[in-house]
């Protein structure tokens, strides 16, 4: 499908990434590239292996097989360097509700060894960028779900990563908060050229945000391309992404996933409400 | 404003030197302890509530057994003998809190924020251990003030108090790290609480905290000698009661505490990544 040479400027190159849990293969031979100016989306239902893929790319989970280079470093050989150059907003909540938004970012800035003299400036900047300057000193437990998500994005940007990983960034958000998060992601890409890898099970989100998408189905990447390209390949006028998905996966996105997977997604949703 | 301009990936990325890495680690430790201090500052009542239990032990248990004269404590009174034991106990019981906190943070996902940062795992764990000493020291302050209020004669010279601070910091780090090890193995709060009780109570009773080793049955003595709590109690007794008899010299007690803490930190660092999986 694609050449084995990574395009110049690739910030993520995954080759045959595989992860097994016991005898179950959650991610099966996944390979793709993301270049520096793109939003790349992994689209798939609950349980497709999106989170497992992201966890491997962010060094939180070791691949059973396969390799990847992220931000110019090999996952296996230099995980600490990979971590230094990426930002990650997990599917679960990574902001601490017991302290303020400012304090959440301040501890991140310190862990990324941003010099003391510049820490305040960087934290303030990142909070302002996500429109949280006015609530910086409030406890996060008083934030709305949308504010928490934006705080987590700010937290993942405080060290100016070259790639930002977002795992289901808008799950559990109401339409207004979702729109706000979408706008921020768009702006990040347009203004700062940060490469973004996100996962979603919302067609609309993939369509709206992503330059390229990979369709993940039961751990396998069954199609990769620009949404328009994928739709055109169906040879049908005005094809939707939904139809693209059904074509490659053989079922609708809502039908996938187990009780446990759905449960996990819903728990996040509940906490953000 | 020039926020997330892509840093050019990989370009000229020499690994940082050893000196640079040590400097970074020190900075990361300071940040983690500072973070815990901010958390405690947002909710100080919890700190005070946690001092109630050791206070009750000292007042109720201590007073009753002083009157009974049931426990031979040599040249010192039973309350004198007991005070360092209760200090050590309060440190031990704080550790449970850190295990529960890390299970909670794992369930919520907060822990991934730490694990995805470039801070080495050993630094993350050591930072947690040092943070625990903030709670340890605040409880120790309450217990010592209470003992003074009860007119228990203690040596409170500056060197003695500095030594107490060192011992409490080591003890808090040791037991909270042990607790995080158990938490990363069992992963659920219910199981952790069960095992927590199963570990804490024997550690407490198979030590010299509330009675001397000399009155223990002979089979229990080796257990007490393998118990790090015994060394913490012994160190605190040497510092606060210079005329009481001790099991070991102070250097041996502190050396054992340092050695066990370092060992547990490495074990915990190896297990810690499980908290994000
Ligand atoms: N730690 C784990 N142990 C066993 N199975 C797991 C584990 N994590 C994920 N899985 C399984 O792997 C599959 C993919 O999960 P995940 O990557 O979370 O999917 P997604 O993020 O697309 O919803 C699911 O079937 C899930 O149950
Ligand atoms: Mg997921």
In short:
Chain A has 273 residues and is of the alpha/beta class. In chain A, 40% of the residues lie in helices and 23% in strands.
Give a structural overview.
- The complex is a heterodimer of chains A (273) and B (277).
- With 273 residues, chain A is of the alpha/beta class.
- Chain A has a single domain (12-272), classed as P-loop containing nucleotide triphosphate hydrolases (Rossmann fold).
- Helix content of chain A is 40%, strand content 23%.
- The model of chain A has no long low-confidence stretch (mean pLDDT 88).
- With 277 residues, chain B is an all-alpha fold.
- Chain B has one domain (14-276).
- Helix content of chain B is 73%, strand content 0%.
- Chain B has eleven helices and no strands.
- In chain B, helix 4 runs antiparallel to helix 8 (189-205) and helix 6 (121-149) packs across helix 7 (158-186).
- The radius of gyration of chain B is 21 Å and the shape is globular.
- The chains are: A alpha/beta (273), B mainly alpha (277).
- Chains A and B meet through helix 2, strand 6, helix 3 and helix 4 of A and helix 1 and helix 5 of B.
- Adenosine-5'-diphosphate binds next to helix 1 and helix 10 of chain A.
